[in-house]
């Protein structure tokens, strides 16, 4: 598309997509999931899901954006032409953008609580506190709505710093810088875990094969997470792929994103387990791990106030990169379709984002009657965006690219370096990924309603 911006380096795509993947991977999820679902067996299943299902879809989504050279709406319009579909087919892009917006709102609430926790730990309020006392300080139980909204606004201000850059080239430079800082901060956190925790015990616990804890639920959880962590089906990668420079290896760039995502997930798990094991704490799931177990460890460790503030600051930064990435499809469409300045597009997208985040926040705090058919707004976000839209959009894109677009067109998007790998990726995308996505969709719904 004429006039469409390009990033200056292939590493910019890797950095931007990794910022999304690291955040959606939640950096802490693998620790409790592996503990719950079989240790090394779960980790192996997660890695297989990344390599066999998520990576082929990631490559497909980047290819669609790379060929379309526009917003996800424009790129899917080009895919519609290549595949010979009816005119309304590219409406998948707005649906995916709405799902991304919903997940961004959820990530905003989590990010605001992480920012609050960093401040609480740094203020020494939890020093030498008991587990019971820290549990009583859980944000969902103690925060008043007005204070919670202030922290939400503060976190959104952090995201806005990244969002309002006036062009994609500058945004790319910022995202590359942020990823480098995240790598440095993670390395520092890992060093602290080695010095003050039990890294060898953590590695043994994470990779220990426990068949008794492994089953269908573990497989479903690992496969769903392998898709969610890369933002599959949200068209974020399609938007980022449109900015990728010409003549660079698509497969190489996507492989690096997956490798970094897995490395951060494993490192995050090892950091958590290594500091909780000496305190005889099981890395339980969900918010309990983040806002009870980890603060207890830092509260009862030497220099824990500094280490804890640093750790939660790291998680806050990761959440911010996730929100920025999830808003890109909507921002790309507004700037492209309406020739709108990026800063104004940010303002326009921020309105539904903040309204939805406030709705999720109120539900979690128990403010008002926000149960809809027995579920909170945050539950509906998980169901609609993660369990339904994500796999179905990914399936539609794969079927279109693998079965309707002529092979010569698909192959033309790959450089010479990619061609040997292309003949592995193409049949996997056509024959293995679609039934796997169907199974993930059905099993995910079944697991959600159990």
Verbal overview:
The protein has helices spanning 10-24, 29-37, 40-68, 72-83, 92-122, 131-136, 139-142, 145-163, 168-196, 199-207, 216-228, 236-241, 250-276, 287-299, 304-337, 342-365, 377-403, 407-412, 419-448. With 450 residues, it is mostly helical. Helix 1 (10-24) packs parallel to helix 13 (250-276), helix 9 (168-196) packs parallel to helix 13 and helix 9 runs antiparallel to helix 15. The longest helix has 34 residues, at 304-337. 52% of the residues are buried. The model has no long low-confidence stretch (mean pLDDT 88).
List the keywords:
19 helices, 76% helix, globular, mainly alpha, 0% strand, 450 residues
Short description:
This protein has helices at 10-24, 29-37, 40-68, 72-83, 92-122, 131-136, 139-142, 145-163, 168-196, 199-207, 216-228, 236-241, 250-276, 287-299, 304-337, 342-365, 377-403, 407-412, 419-448. The protein is mainly alpha-helical and 450 residues long. α8 runs antiparallel to α16.
How many helical elements?
19
Compressed to H and E, one letter per element, the order equals HHHHHHHHHHHHHHHHHHH
Number of strands: 0
User: Ranges with pLDDT <50 over ≥5 residues?
Assistant: none
Strand content: under 5%
The percentage helix is over 70%
Using only C-alpha atoms, the radius of gyration works out to: 21 Å
Distance between the termini: 46 Å
Helices and strands, with pairings:
Layout: H1 10-24, H2 29-37, H3 40-68, H4 72-83, H5 92-122, H6 131-136, H7 139-142, H8 145-163, H9 168-196, H10 199-207, H11 216-228, H12 236-241, H13 250-276, H14 287-299, H15 304-337, H16 342-365, H17 377-403, H18 407-412, H19 419-448
